[in-house]
Design goal:
The complex is a heterodimer of chains A (172) and B (191). In chain A, 34% of the residues lie in helices and 16% in strands. Chain A is of the alpha+beta class and 172 residues long. In chain A, strands 2-1-3-4 form a 4-stranded mixed sheet, covered by helices on one side. The chains are: A alpha+beta (172), B mainly beta (191). At the A-B interface, strand 5 of A face helix 1, strand 5, strand 6, strand 10 and strand 13 of B.
Chain lengths: 172, 191
């Protein structure tokens, strides 16, 4: 995926982003960080591209998914997502998504049944295009700490380390 | 937690127990909490509001707040930044505005849903803190969260092995998450 050429829509997006960045840099301003959901929520998945082969056996499930109206029904429920279906002869079927910020994410639908494809498409559309990551913190924050770091020299009661250690000794 | 945008909320949204009789807020001047619980005796001013009837969503016939309560909440409101410890499905998360909460997958939510987080254990700023007993009254704050993503984790591999017993096991799994963005965290002005 890394060596693949950017799609035309992505290239246009990159150009606009570059122009905006240059304009802000002229005025020595940083662009505000985009935090989806603060102020407005933008659906992260913008486009899905389905590819299939007409002859290949690995595309059987994909045929079923495309022809039995399953994709059509799903597309009607998600009018915000652009959907493109194209044949790719002699290749395994693929579903690739384009997301906000020019990110791309895809999965291979080789030998998958139509139901499996349906579930995987839903999973793909539910992400923001970031690679699968294991989150180890409960909260992801970029803000500075509200309360700051506690300091013994800047609090209302001065924290006397010597007295505290003496007390601890006495109690022992 | 109460769902705002979709009225057909399922069972778990309302599973948070509200206190039957709302308790008065305890406003603690910053620094007092740390010393009370550790070594030095608390010499800082710890002001406790008198028991005043606090209107809740469960109590439609609510009496107005006392002047003391209003003044104390107003002190907190005048601060620049706030934090809150919210409960989502029984787990506590300390958040500020714009943060992302990583929760276990909530199947009944779709992207863009707006949640009203009303189970708050603690609400505070740099200098003041309101500690709930067990929860802070919903009149004091507005916290809204937006469902932004339902991501899947990378594959986690755990292995089990027992010596001399011919026992090997490899378990692979992918945890599923739901990410909630704190779209708004504000202290209300009490009327």
């Amino acid at each position: 995926m890394g060596a693949r050429m950017l799609r035309p829509t992505c290239r246009a997006f990159e150009q606009v982003r570059r122009q905006m960045k240059d304009a802000l840099e002229k005025e020595k301003r940083q662009p505000a960080p985009f935090r989806n959901g603060v102020g407005a929520f933008v659906y992260p998945c913008q486009k899905l591209v389905f590819t299939y082969c007409e002859r290949g056996g690995s595309s059987r499930g994909m045929h079923e998914y495309l022809t039995q109206g399953k994709l059509e029904a799903w597309a009607q429920q998600h009018p915000q997502i652009e959907i493109q279906v194209e044949p790719k002869p002699s290749k395994h079927p693929m579903v690739s998504g384009q997301f906000l910020g020019g990110r791309e994410k895809s999965f291979c639908a080789r030998k998958l049944t139509s139901e499996e494809i349906k579930a995987k498409v839903q999973d793909l559309a539910n992400t923001s295009g970031r690679p699968d990551t294991r989150f180890r913190q409960p909260v992801l924050s970029k803000n500075y700490s509200v309360r700051g770091i506690w300091s013994p020299f800047h609090s209302q009661d001065l924290f006397n380390v010597l007295e505290a250690s003496k007390k601890a000794h006495r109690s022992e | 937690m109460r769902l705002l945008s979709r009225p057909t909320a399922t069972r778990w949204h309302t599973c948070v127990k509200r206190p039957s009789a709302a308790l008065p807020p305890r406003v603690v001047v910053n620094g007092a909490r740390a010393f009370c619980t550790t070594l030095a005796p608390s010499t800082t001013s710890t002001t406790t509001a008198k028991a005043s009837p606090v209107p809740t969503s469960n109590n439609p016939v609510a009496r107005p707040h006392s002047d003391e309560t209003k003044a104390l909440v107003h002190r907190l409101r005048n601060q620049a930044k706030y934090y809150a410890t919210v409960k989502v499905r029984g787990k506590c998360y300390t958040v500020t505005e714009g943060d992302l909460i990583v929760t276990d997958r909530m199947v009944d939510l779709s992207l863009g849903d707006v949640l009203n987080l009303d189970a708050v254990v603690e609400l505070g700023s740099k200098d003041y803190t309101i500690v709930g007993k067990p929860l802070v009254s919903t009149d004091y704050f507005t916290i809204k969260a937006v469902v932004t993503e339902h991501p899947v984790s990378s594959t986690v591999v755990t292995t089990k092995f027992k010596k001399r017993k011919d026992y090997h096991k490899t378990i692979e799994y992918q945890p599923r998450y739901t990410l909630l963005r704190i779209a708004k965290l504000d202290v209300n002005k009490l009327a």
